[in-house]
Amino acid sequence: MGALCLSMAASLAAGCGVKETTEESGATEEVVIPMILTVDSTTGNRNEEKLIEAFNEEYQGIYRVDVEWIVETEEEYRQNLKRRNVTDELPAVITDLSMLPSFYRMMIQDGRIEDISSYIEEDQEWADMIEPVVLEGCSEPSGEVYLAPISTAAFSCSGVFWNQELFERAGIETFPETWEEFWYCCERLENYGVTPLALHTEGTGWAPMLLATAELADSEAGADFMKELYPESYQNENGLRLANTLDRLFDYTTDDALHVDFDVAYTNFFTGNAAMIPNGYWMIDQIPEGWKDKVRFAPFPGNKLISSPETFGWSIVSSYSDEVKEGAVEFLKFRTRMNQAEKEEMFNQNARGLSPAERDYIQAYQGNPQIVPNYQVKWNSILQEEILGEILPELVQGKITAEEFTRKEDESIQKFEEEQ
Predict the structure, then answer these.
(1) Predicted TM-score (pTM) of this structure
(2) In angstroms, rounded to a whole number, what is the distance separating the alpha carbons of residues 269 and 322?
(3) Are 165 and 295 found together in one domain?
(4) Residues of the domain holding 208
(5) In this structure, how many other beta carbons lie within 10 angstroms of the beta carbon of residue 188?
(6) Most CB within 10 Å of its CB: which of 26, 68, 267, 380?
(7) What is the mean pLDDT of the chain?
């Protein structure tokens, strides 16, 4: 998601999508809604392409979402949002704001994004589509909604994808249900010549951090810690436990896991170089042909899923014309409706028509899992964007201790507070 789909100059040249009616023809100009989305670098798939095509077809001649597809990582896209905000070159609809907590707060304070709560309150159809937990996650304490919600949390959960063939090679029939069984599973896989985990350290360390935070939530104190927004310190029992788990995880991964991003971990998993990779429901659509029968899904040990539905909330940039913003509202409502229909279709269809991973995911979601918040919406941006990528490799290489790791995490808190 990254470079601007339309520069401001180009947007103005196109009328910024303003609907204009001429007396001569009585024709109404199609309202163009600029947006940028990413192309998955590993699969070549255009993210959200089905949504864009469906909306443009239904609203042909009235509204059109004009997307520039960018080959960038999610982290690159998020950094570009900040740069384009400074130059006033943001598209009309932006994604991923909740993954940048401090930037999101600044966008609200500066009046850069729209509060759409009144649209939802006045549209009972739209309100009825949204699960209460999703709307709550997208709402401010005082009731404003700057993150347009999807319908359901059903597609926002992360767990572990695992290679059934590699598990069977080691004589393991099912995914481990406890963390003690998980570590035993890693040892057994290694003993049979199978690398257990596909991990990475760049970005926010998405894959290892999913595992480590899920493990931390196995204790009541750890679960409470994961609910804290901007923890005051990591130099405590919870922070040390998290650091030690991260260190231990990298004993079971590939040799190329350091200083690389998730795409390398993805490739290692889907070339059979590793038996497990943590990720969310959305990776089901990224399973290559020939792999669908061997890839399974499981909740994290302890029957845990990591989910923050607000991370799927999209925002409307305030600097656009009323016509464009109204079109963006229609687009976001359409997205909510399409998300609701996808859940109903998937959860109601015959299980024989689903892939093993899809069947597993539905079973996990309906299995009363403990939901652990996503650390990316809880921790300060400096820790995530600057510190983790530096100190995680140092930790797993033995250059710093777990205590030093947590001390460096706390340094990010001080720096973050100074910048606010």
Answers:
(1) 0.76
(2) 46
(3) yes
(4) 157-307+355-419
(5) 16
(6) 380
(7) 90
